[in-house]
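User: quick one - fold this with zinc ion bound?
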Amino acid sequence: MAMKEFLRTKGFKMTPQRDLIFKSFFEMDRHVSVDELYDRVRQLNSSVGYSTVWRNLKLICKIGLAEEVNLGDGVTRYDRVTKVPHGHMYCLKCKELIEFNVDHIMDFLTVTANENNFLPEGYKIEIQGYCAKCRETMSEDNGDRLT
Ligand SMILES: [Zn+2]
Ligand SMILES: [Zn+2]
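Assistant: Sure. Structure tokens for the protein plus zinc ion:
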């Protein structure tokens, strides 16, 4: 189904600006912030305002195509919803977000939920730490850390 029709089934109309914002979001790397999306959209059409970008990003979430990812650094990122859950590894230094496959632990999570008579509606699997690149620079800066 084209995005225009999909939107209509959700009760929203496609407009040229909305179309541009949606396309930009789905073309960008995953996990974009409002600022990043705004910069991208402005490159294509400088008349689009920040609040328009923000509202449309909220709309993309509302219709179930993206969700907010909050990692505690004050920046809300938006991640495309995928059918299969995935995990995030978050680097505390460079803020890089690396996705990983969680297939092999999904059974465990489902069983755990069942055992506790809990109905899962979503999964957030996150590992915080330092990526290889940052650990390298950190050990150069400070010889006795993370060697
Ligand atoms: Zn993700
Ligand atoms: Zn890093």
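One thing worth noting: The chain has a mean pLDDT of 89.
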